[in-house]
């Protein structure tokens, strides 16, 4: 029997999907429906076993998630994959404190996802729409939810509580949740394989550096601190997000500069970070090129980015005590030899010796170690959140089947 899993990642205006063979870890079909709800929604997909040609279709104006899932059903049918599908795995951004691991979706789980809408107003409602559409079109398949926040539910109170009145945590759930959990979990598991040690014997710092960036301290397999917080805006500066700023800034912006809440939201989420400093681009590749060409603001943006990352990594010696490896992942972490070198250069206290050759070699999907020193290893490991979702979904299906005595 095949181990094919449909992985669905519904965003506010997009649905990313993949059919993955969870046994061999290969992607059979991948695709993306985007600009949903707009005048020109469209869908692109690729069957990786076939001729590798990308197919494209324009969807009716205003089409939403349900139409996208209907289209995904058609594509799966046309590629004769329907009978091979065993389970559907959904990425869900916010599980709040309800979920510490992936779960089979039932009405209670859907209620809990809805309850967490206020914590992720752009993501959770879209995730739920994807789930309901998939339940409609695949009524006989088990659906599983995999949460971005679940991996960080092991954070101790000392790292998840803000020094605010405790009642805000108790009554409103205001605390650090952390995000990118599926990615941090995956690359830390892969790092343990690379180090040939059980996770219970190692401490790792993972740096997920993409458009969104977060860093995580993982002690003996468990997340003990992470840079994102109550929302994915916190921590280090990102493509367009500010990361941490002085909370006193908000009243200054309101009182002195007449900003309203939406303007502050826009400023911190969309106009800050690498884009804000460089006044030019949020794209790391473009900034590296501009820096080489002498653009001072591009260089400054990259310097600030690397400094904040190095500082955060160094601070995680506090919860971890000892460190076995630092792992780079995400679009920037996996591909930018320049950024990695610049960060490592600032971690002098760790006595890391970078291999320039290996740093250049470990790009574009290649994984491995880029340092030559004894002690802390610096690893590059491409993330694969879709594979984690597929594997979790299959594990839960198999568990259910064996409990039911189904072979
Ligand atoms: P992600 O959100 O994980 O897809 O990562 C997107 C970020 O990765 C963007 O800032 C890209 O500029 C960056 N990126 C992708 N490839 C490279 C590369 N070869 N060198 C530097 N940055 C890259």
What can you tell me about this protein's structure?
Helix 1 packs across helix 3. With 407 residues, the protein is of the alpha/beta class. The chain starts with a strand and ends with a helix. An eight-stranded mixed beta sheet has the order 5-4-3-2-1-6-8-7, sandwiched between helices. A six-stranded mixed beta sheet has the order 11-10-9-12-14-13, with helices on both faces. Helix content is 40%, strand content 20%. It has helices at residues 65-78, 107-115, 124-137, 157-160, 166-172, 181-195, 248-255, 261-270, 273-278, 284-292, 296-315, 317-320, 330-335, 337-346, 356-361, 385-404; strands at 4-10, 15-21, 26-34, 42-47, 54-58, 85-92, 103-104, 142-147, 203-209, 213-219, 222-226, 325-329, 368-369, 377-380. The chain is built from 16 helices and 14 strands. The structure holds adenosine monophosphate.
Give the helix tally.
Answer: 16
SSE-based structural type: alpha/beta
**Which overall shape is indicated by the principal axes computed on the Cα atoms?**
globular
What string gives the helices and strands in order?
EEEEEHEEHHEHHHEEEHHHHHHEHHHEEH
The span between the termini is 10 Å
* Rg computed from alpha carbons, rounded to a whole number of angstroms: 22 Å
Strand runs, count? 14
- Please describe the biggest sheet, giving its number of strands, its sense, and whether it closes into a barrel: 8 strands, mixed
């Amino acid at each position: 029997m095949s181990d094919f899993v449909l992985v669905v990642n519904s965003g506010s205006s997009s649905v990313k999907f993949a059919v993955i063979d969870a046994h061999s870890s290969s992607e059979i079909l991948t695709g993306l429906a985007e600009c949903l709800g707009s005048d020109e929604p469209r869908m692109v997909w690729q069957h990786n076993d076939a001729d590798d040609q990308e197919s494209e279709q324009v969807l009716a104006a205003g089409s939403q998630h349900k139409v996208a899932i209907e289209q995904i059903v058609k594509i799966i049918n046309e590629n004769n994959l329907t009978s091979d599908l065993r389970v559907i795995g959904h990425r869900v951004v916010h599980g709040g404190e309800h979920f510490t691991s992936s779960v089979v979706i039932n009405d209670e789980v859907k209620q809990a996802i809805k309850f967490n809408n206020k914590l992720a107003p752009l993501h959770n409602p879209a995730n739920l729409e994807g789930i309901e559409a998939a339940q409609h079109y695949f009524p006989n398949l088990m659906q599983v939810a995999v949460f971005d926040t679940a991996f960080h539910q092991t954070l101790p109170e000392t790292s998840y509580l803000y020094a605010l009145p405790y009642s805000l945590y108790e009554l409103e759930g205001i605390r650090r949740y952390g995000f990118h959990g599926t990615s941090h979990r995956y690359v830390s598991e892969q790092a343990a394989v690379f180090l040939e040690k059980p996770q219970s014997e190692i401490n790792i710092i993972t740096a997920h550096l993409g458009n969104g960036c977060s860093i995580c301290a993982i002690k003996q397999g468990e997340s003990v601190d992470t840079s994102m917080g109550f929302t994915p805006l916190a921590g280090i500066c990102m493509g367009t997000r500010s990361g941490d700023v002085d909370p006193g800034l908000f009243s200054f912006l309101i009182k002195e500069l007449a900003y309203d809440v939406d303007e502050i939201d826009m400023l911190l989420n969309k106009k800050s970070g690498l884009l804000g400093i460089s006044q030019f681009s949020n794209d790391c590749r473009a900034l590296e090129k501009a820096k080489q060409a002498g653009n001072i603001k591009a260089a400054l943006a990259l310097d600030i980015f690397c400094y904040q990352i190095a500082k955060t990594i160094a601070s995680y010696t506090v919860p971890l005590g000892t460190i076995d490896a630092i792992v780079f992942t995400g679009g920037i972490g996996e591909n930018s030899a320049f950024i990695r070198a610049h960060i490592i250069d600032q971690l002098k206290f760790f006595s890391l010796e970078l291999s320039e050759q290996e740093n250049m070699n470990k790009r574009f999907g290649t994984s491995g170690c880029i340092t030559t020193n004894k002690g802390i290893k610096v690893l590059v490991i491409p993330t694969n959140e879709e594979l984690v979702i597929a594997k979790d979904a299959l594990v839960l299906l198999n568990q259910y089947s064996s409990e039911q005595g189904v072979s």
